[in-house]
């Protein structure tokens, strides 16, 4: 009997060892041959969200409550660092953070704004099919990025997996400001998802560096401002959010309280959000008529 148990344990250990080796080999292959660095990878990653969140998902957007403001809830996009994204310092290149943000932001917009995007696209043509652009009705509706900025807090190592939590920071008369947090995989782990109530997260007790503070799990922070255009015409964010079902149209009764809570949250982020617009102030320091330069590559 003891011999049988011993053989069973040995066989089980061998199987687990083989699985670990196979898993490690797959991770190495993924690290070297990641689709993220293939030609047209940016388009595939972004239009994946367009197809599977915007085009095929016909469910209504969950209504906001005073305790759960749908408009400000984040989405999570998981990614990794393949060989093609490593810089000379041996970690994730700074430039690749922005392509990751593009994919995460596309997923966020196609998930949260799917009803508004669908409504505006029916009034004309979408970004997929811009058409002839003759007259307002045939002009495409599309989001356009106006500025981006990123703060790099910690290096992301080769092969490291991480999550990008993207949410709306604020908005004004023209721009919608998005903020994206690069965090260690599993560090941001909600136990409830408003858009997928049947999916529940797993409560995890993760250890962090720097005195076990949870903010030490944040690897980078990026802010982007986006404008929604119908041809050359700017669509006001509040109007678009109403079409999305994220912002109440009327201000009576409970809706007025909800609208006040949304406005309070918007004001909390607007000062930080508008700092990204300071980039344009650099125009005053650039002399385009200057005839002297140091070198040209």
Describe the overall structure:
This protein has 297 residues and is of the alpha+beta class. It has two domains: 1-33; 41-196 and 213-279, Thiol Ester Dehydrase, Chain A (Roll), CATH 3.10.129. It has seven helices and seven strands, in the order ααβααββββαββαα. Strands 1, 2, 3, 4, 5, 6 and 7 form a seven-stranded mixed sheet that branches. β6 (218-230) and β7 form a beta hairpin. α2 (41-55) runs parallel beside α3 (96-112) and α4 (114-122) packs across α6 (237-244). The relative contact order is 0.14. The model is unreliable at 129-133 and 202-212 (pLDDT under 50).
Q: Quaternary arrangement of the chains shown?
A: single chain
- The residue ranges in which pLDDT falls below 50 over 5 or more consecutive positions are 129-133, 202-212
CATH fold-level topology of the largest domain: Thiol Ester Dehydrase, Chain A
Instruction: State the total count of DSSP E strands.
Output: 7
Q: End-to-end distance, in Å?
A: 77 Å
Shape: globular
The class by helix and strand makeup works out as alpha+beta
Rg for CA atoms? 23 Å
Residues in helices, as a percent range = 25-40%
Q: Could you say what the CATH architecture of the largest domain is?
A: Roll
Mean pLDDT: 81
The arrangement of helices and strands along the chain is HHEHHEEEEHEEHH
Largest sheet geometry? 7 strands, mixed
CATH class of the largest domain: Alpha Beta
The helix tally amounts to 7
- The fraction of residues in strands falls at 15-25%
In total, how many domains does the architecture comprise?
Answer: 2
Name given to the CATH homologous superfamily of the largest domain: Hotdog Thioesterase
